[in-house]
Design goal:
The structure holds two protein chains of two kinds. Chain A is mainly α. Chain A has two domains: about 90 residues, no CATH class; about 230 residues, MetI-like fold, CATH 1.10.3720.10. Chain A is built from 14 helices and two strands; from the N terminus they run ααββαααααααααααα. Chain B folds into two domains: about 50 residues, no CATH class; about 200 residues, MetI-like (MetI-like fold, Orthogonal Bundle), CATH 1.10.3720. The longest helix of chain B is centred in the first third of the chain and has 34 residues. Classes of the chains: A mainly alpha, B mainly alpha. At the A-B interface, helix 1, helix 2, helix 4, helix 5 and helix 6 of A face helix 1, helix 3, helix 4, helix 5 and helix 7 of B. Chain A: It is a multi-pass membrane protein. Chain A: Keywords: Cell membrane, Membrane, Transmembrane, Transmembrane helix, Transport. Chain A: It is found in: Cell membrane.
Amino acid sequence: MQSVSPRSLFPVVCGADTYGSALFFHKRRWMFESEVSSLKTNGPSAKVELGKSQKFRFHSKQIVPYLFIAPAVILFAIFMLYPIIYSFVLSFQTNDGGQFVFAGLDNYMRLFKDEIFIKALKNTFLILIIQVPIMLFLALVLATCLNSALLKLKGFFRVSFFLPAVTSLVAYSIIFSIMMMGDGIINKFLMSIGLDAVPWLSHPVWAKVALIIAMTWRWVGYNMVIYLAAMQNISEELYEAASIDGASKIRQFFSITIPQLKPVILFTAILSTIGTLQLFDEPYTLTKGGPSDATLTIGMYLYQTGFRYFDFSYASTIAYVIVVLIAILSFIQFKISGDER
Amino acid sequence: MSQRKLLQKIGLYAVLTVGVIISLFPFYWAMIGATNESGKMFSSTPTLVPGTKLIENITNLNESIGIGRVMFNSLFVAGTYTVLSLIICTMAAYAFAKFHFKGRNVIFTIFLLSMMIPYHATVIPLFKMMAAFGWLNTYKALILPNLAYPFAIFLMRQNMLAFPDALIEAARIDGAGEWRIFFRIVLPSMKPALAATAIFLFMYQWNSFLWPLIAVSSEEMYTFPVALSSLFGLSRIDYGQVMAGVTLATVPIIVFFLALQRHFISGMLGSAVK
């Protein structure tokens, strides 16, 4: 689901110490050499040589960066840029007896009348609206707990919570599917504490709940680590001042932690939105889109259209609907957080 | 005060312990499933202790999907991908971070924007392209498409920004070539960032599902997620086998993660933790 990762926000700042000492060492050497070279550059020949090497350096410096980016740019152009553009073109075409011909907005019009697509759209949005806030809230709570000064074994908790995010989407979906079957361990547990068994995978509503639970399990720790990183930048003084004023921990959470983390929360919200709109692996494995399309997502419908019915142009149209939705939702999220600030 | 603190502490540990149990139980359950016979997980009195059927389950699994082949495919694809992508992305990141050149910002922005485009939008043209090249069902099809991974470039660039220009300049004045500067001076100090990016790339490729599902149709080329999915899609499912497969697919990535997690998480947490 979330294919973009947020580590970007938190550059690894390597030990400044290493830099410092290396720099010092180099400076000294450089100074020494410049002293030597200043001794040498008395004759006219030395001057010419210096000019030459400077010119050469200037020249090579122009090419060097292009050499460094060349492999990435070439691969990116072939396997990313070209497909993105080609897919856009395809979305306006239709397959007419093996030939792709221009069809204008036909595919897009077809989408509005396509009941299965609309159902997939609704399912995806329902999951998005419920799952993302729950997941992000839990992640914030866990991060706050892990950030507490009272806690020991932080490393153990951090790794334990992050471990689900390492597991393959297919593997964890299978595990959850087996745990959530009618006579699976989760129902056994519910019955043992006096509750009724839940038809997790065979009821249209519960199947969505099952999907939401599974996705939350997988992604909470991931978001937690991001928040934990951002929390290192919140000044301790804010909390101290609040404690002195008698604000409870819960109050501090809502009036210090959340406002301070707002940009990061926005960031994770956008990432999760992008991920959920592309949701494929989980419903494909866990619920197989069922029962009766109750958990069919846009991503799954795209796959079915493209690779079961081989309607490439219509599938491309669906892909571009996802692109547009991501753009719109990201924009809205930026707006909301901007206005409040 | 201290009593309140004690209560807080107890509450904290209680919440986190429940969290850890929920977080780790599915892994444990997969292991239970892998070591017991198929029906055991669904019996009226489910066992919570590891059984003795692991070898049997693995043998059956091997007959169904050919573990050696699948494991090799997954390891080879993810390993090769990680090494190549790390080199390609780090090189590009270095140029973006430490050189001024025409088009730098435009190219970098395009890379960044592409992260917003869902993978689905590229899958169909990629499929047609691979079909045209005759590369379906090959390692090329699995490895090549995402080598220039924008996120990895971005991550490495962010890290390289912090690298002092003076050091690079000093090396140039000392007469070191650009390649030498990159490999001998810049890269060695990027180890934590490289480790974090490597884990990220390896995990991404090891767990990748949609593209292998599309690009590969012969069982010989199946990676773990595709093989597991096909096994789980059968009408008669042997759950012991499936759980053995899930466990086998999960153990390497967890080992890989645990071995490098110090770098990974500290990479994410930045300098604050060190």
